[in-house]
Amino acid sequence: MKRYSAFSLLRNALSHNRNWRPAWRNPEPKKSYDAIVVGGGGHGLATAYYLAKEHGISNVAVLEKGWIGGGNTGRNTTIVRSNYLWTEAALLYEKSMKLWEGLSQDLNYNVMFSQRGVYNLGHSPQDMRDIERRVNANRLNGIDAEVISVAELGKAIPYLNVSSSARYPVLGASLQRRGGVARHDAVAWGFARAADALGVDIIEQCEVTGMEIRGGKVTGVRTTRGPIASDRIGVVVAGHAGVLAKMAGLRLPIESHPLQAFVSEPIKPVLDTVVMSGAVHGYVSQSDKGELVIGSGIDAYNGYGQRGSFPVIEHAMQAIIELFPIFSRVRMLRLWGGIVDVAPDACPIVSKTPVEGLYFNCGWGTGGFKATPGSGWVFAHTMAHGEAHELNAPFSLERFSSGALVYEHGAAAVAH
Amino acid sequence: MLLITCPWCGPRAETEFSYGGEADIARPLDPDALSDAEWADYLFYRGNPRGPHREKWNHVHGCRRWFGVERDTVSYRIARSFMLSAGGPGADADAGPESGGDANTEQED
Ligand SMILES: Cc1cc2nc3c(=O)[nH]c(=O)nc-3n(C[C@H](O)[C@H](O)[C@H](O)COP(=O)(O)OP(=O)(O)OC[C@H]3O[C@@H](n4cnc5c(N)ncnc54)[C@H](O)[C@@H]3O)c2cc1C
Ligand SMILES: [Zn+2]
What we know:
The complex is a heterodimer of chains A (about 425) and B (about 110).
Chain A: H1 6-14, E1 35-38, H2 42-55, E2 60-63, E3 79-80, H3 87-101, H4 103-107, E4 118-122, H5 125-140, E5 146-149, H6 150-156, E6 172-176, E7 180-181, H7 184-197, E8 201-203, E9 208-214, E10 217-223, E11 228-229, E12 233-235, H8 241-247, E13 255-264, E14 274-277, E15 282-286, E16 292-298, H9 310-323, E17 332-342, E18 349-352, E19 358-362, H10 372-385, H11 399-402
Parallel strand pairs in A: 1-2, 1-12, 2-8, 4-14, 12-19
Antiparallel strand pairs in A: 3-7, 4-6, 5-6, 9-10, 10-11, 13-16, 13-17, 14-15, 15-16, 18-19
Chain B: E1 3-6, E2 10-13, E3 18-22, H1 36-43, E4 52-58, E5 66-72, E6 78-82, H2 96-100
Antiparallel strand pairs in B: 1-2, 3-4, 4-5, 5-6
The complex binds flavin-adenine dinucleotide (FAD) and zinc ion (ZN).
């Protein structure tokens, strides 16, 4: 891998940028691999990278049915934070946060991680009690968190409507200063390039269509580019987890829903942080290009269509205009949807399965972008050792029959 | 927006309804006799198919009654509405592609 640096920029500029190399190879699939990762989103690419980097398993293929990052990784609103209420979740997301903090250096790729802070607003006395509880829980887990008063909010975010005559007055907020946003495509590309450099084959336009299972053990996959053998297979396909599970004769406690997001026309810098509200249910930040990046809740019905219904869009806009009346005349430019894999307790499943050698990583639902490095890190450990790391042990499939759910719905304000 | 046909009230906008998830899940008659895994399957595990889906809807801002809808989870096209139990009016009320069609199917991915 040719390392990127200020010097390489200069050298390539002098040769009129004619000598840049593709960031990863485009190999033909081999007959077999030591490990296969199904799904070339951020989580799958991170899994392959950490398999090679941390566990010395580099004869690995990432199989992606479309193009890498074309799923939820390239469709999300890129909010990164680790202020989850329950210890199990907080430790997992905080592991990810620590990896984010060194990621651009580690990958030699600028993922544009910007720790501009994330505010979660409270609109009622009960919201504020929940915020105080969560902030205290975060601090006990070593995660930075603060309670912010309305007066401080009004100063920090001048255009936020903090008037007491608002329909849903803002009473305060939690703030995680280490939270922020990252460039979603760069995360996929950075992990792909770094994994490729360690020997991982990234195979796009390769859809897995079936699983080979003999005597309770997985032996390979069938794909649109022929059969590929491996006795260690990790499935990280987000909204399509149920489709892949069915190929292996399994069911999952997961349902797939549309989740939509929008960007506005680019405007001058107006918002230098991330604002989320669980009560009016919307969240907004401003991209480096100047677009407002806006998201909201899922469409309630099951859907694989990568699009949702208009009432949900309208609801998101109402929420944002409630918070920022100044945005009411901004035009929306683009709208899209992803397919999110929602678990009953809004927490991920990073787990072995009843089929030996077959692992699933799913259930990140509406909020897994922030977990991309951490998810790959624990999943690589799980696939390498055949056992969960202590950070993902609470997130096994067994929790649904043992009853040890990690109930983050609501607990972490908006689940993104 | 989905146009959903309530068997009692006819075609109405999606915003009048609330979604109740997968249909045809029968509550076990004797929960105590189930293993933890079987109970988990009843509570949490779902078919989550990519394609035709039989699901429950409640006409919450209308007659407040439950009924079933057969809808494709990729095209979102509604094939028909049906009664969850025998005996109501218009049992198996066929919505047909005209009345049950979804305006959203025009959109690109
Ligand atoms: C609109 C929206 C906003 C969001 N906002 C946030 C946010 O602000 N913060 C946050 O933390 N999270 C957010 N999320 C959630 C986040 O995007 C996801 O949890 C995360 O990106 C999932 O990453 P992934 O790599 O697991 O999935 P994906 O990126 O979806 O990757 C899965 C890949 O698997 C591939 N695949 C599927 N089936 C097959 C097959 N049969 N064979 C081969 N490949 C297959 C797909 O093509 C896809 O590329 C949001 C999601 C959406 C949709
Ligand atoms: Zn009705």
